[in-house]
Amino acid sequence: MVRKRPLRLIVLLGLALLVAVAIYGFAASNTVPGSRAGDGSGSISGYTASSVVYTLNSSDPSKIDKVAFTLNPASTTTVKAKLVSAGTDWYSCTNTAGSVECVTTSPQATVASADQLQVVAVG
Prior knowledge:
The protein is of the alpha+beta class. It contains 1 helix and 7 strands; from the N terminus they run αβββββββ. Strand 1 (48-56) and strand 2 (63-72) form a beta hairpin. The radius of gyration is 33 Å and the shape is elongated.
């Protein structure tokens, strides 16, 4: 009986060593790339929209097919427009050097429901 205890102890120590080596192997193989984090502040300035032109549908002038305007400063990456203050439909716009066009056909904008021009620009 005395011989069984040291044998069990050796087997348990061997298993513990095997588990420790396996865990170390998994932990040692992790690679985390470098990254950056930071905190800062900067001023937010607005844009000026001017020279607004609405293009009506040629066969049904109660519908607005497009709105175009000039945006200053011209450098923006994203421009969206909304024509109904209580609505949720935002139209994507294209900006070419400050000359912005927003197609308002999907969903179709109407003259009767248009009560504002709200522009959001990020650049």
